[in-house]
Amino acid sequence: MIELEGVPELIDPVMVAAFEGWNDAGDAASGAVAHLDREWKGEVFAALDAEDYYDFQVNRPTVWLDNGVRKITWPTTRLSVVRIGGAKPRDLVLVRGIEPSMRWRSFCNELLGFAHELGVEMVVILGALLGDTPHTRPVPVSGVTSDPDLARTMHLEETKYEGPTGIVGVLQEACTHAGVPAVSLWAAVPHYVSQPPNPKATLALLNRLEDLIDVRIPLGELPEDARAWQLGVDQLAAEDSEVAEYVQTLEEARDTADLPEASGDAIAREFERYLRRRDPSADPGPAPGGDATYLRDPSPGRPRPRRSADPEEDPGETPDPPQA
């Protein structure tokens, strides 16, 4: 672990993680964490040692020029902190990286060690899979957990998936065994338009995350990007009669399956989100006094910040919600 000091005492922290690779169809999940990091100006405070977890012939480093000086960026997983202002401020610990090539248990234990020391109250892992879902309908997002109590109190599904899994499933199970509340949010990406980015799926994950942790997330240009993406796919589908017919078949199947969702609960959830976004007092904005600065000294080898005393599924298939 390469550590940077300067992390303050955190307020009700939630860890939000996403990993590029098998669990990230359309880059929807990693795009969501990148959006949070960008909108709230996250500051990296730690990075996992790339040599411990990555095969550089699979995930190659990149060379770039900094004022004429050649530098190398190694594939790894980085942690940053953002502070959400507003009436009830809280912190998010953002974990953004690439699915590791090896030593997954050690990888998860290292992340959980940081979660413990930072006093993280819950871990939310974002994922995306390819599915038989039409691009013209709202993106389905499944919230799953291995914790029966958490499933009941937060209205989530208790995962029943059996089969191959990725780092999202492994990390969630590691959280469960460590006694850390953990939830996975999975967006379904249309398999016939799987190339990244997919801003519509990213937007759907952020909307669900917003409901789950009860914060208002600034969306910036993401809604417009999602509309432009759908319009572009509409145009491509219209140029191929077979694709257009297939999309229509998916639409009919989806509309039939979703009839029960036109319920009072579903309508109430959408109305509550609408009201939150109209309420100026709910604007998180930067923390009082400007953006919190978490980086102080980039020297490696510093001790970890102390904790406050107060306390899948195969991306090419479309079965039941994946292991989380």
UniProtKB/TrEMBL annotation:
Gene3D superfamilies: PAC-like subunit (3.40.50.10900). InterPro entries: Proteasome_assmbl_chaperone_2 (IPR019151), PSMG2_sf (IPR038389), Rv2714-like (IPR008492). Residues 272-281 have a biased composition (Basic and acidic residues). It comes from the Bacteria. Residues 289-298 have a biased composition (Low complexity). It holds the Pfam family PAC2. Residues 272-324 are annotated as: Disordered. This is PAC2 family protein. It comes from Streptomyces toxytricini (Actinomyces toxytricini).
